[in-house]
Structure to design on (133 residues):
């Protein structure tokens, strides 16, 4: 029986590690800081998040920020992984009759959170960096 050259085995193992890293979702637990920016309204503001594990593959998130420089907001949502792409998390929240439904899709890197949102006739981006685990 012929043995396979070592470089082929090393290459195959390397490819398996690369593919596994694409399938693994980064753990979002921790404190985050950054900003939100609305494309439709051209508003933007600072935002923070505190994300904790629910222990079942979902996460509880508390977002806090400011709108129009001085108006504070705080809301809590559950972040749920998409069934067909567990590296993307979604959140939905009814913000009441004036603001309507809020939806967000986001993904996490080791130190970054990047997503998009839609609420109250606006849509835009959320970009944050991890400040602690």
């Amino acid at each position: 029986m012929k043995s396979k050259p070592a470089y082929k085995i090393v290459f195959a193992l390397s490819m398996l590690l690369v593919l596994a890293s694409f399938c693994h979702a980064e753990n979002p637990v921790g404190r985050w800081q950054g900003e939100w920016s609305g494309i439709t309204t051209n508003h933007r503001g600072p935002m923070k998040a505190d994300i904790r594990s629910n222990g079942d593959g979902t996460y509880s998130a508390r977002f806090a920020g400011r709108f129009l420089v001085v108006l504070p907001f705080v809301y809590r949502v559950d972040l749920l992984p998409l069934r067909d792409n567990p590296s993307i998390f979604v959140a939905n929240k009814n913000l009441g009759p004036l603001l309507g439904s809020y939806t967000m899709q986001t993904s996490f890197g080791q130190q970054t959170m990047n997503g998009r949102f839609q609420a109250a006739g606006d849509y835009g981006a959320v970009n944050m960096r991890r400040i602690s685990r």
Q: What stands out?
A: DSSP finds one helix and eight strands in the chain. The beta strands are 30-38, 44-53, 59-67, 71-81, 88-94, 101-108, 112-119, 122-132. The first helix runs from residue 6 to 23. Helices lie at 6-23.
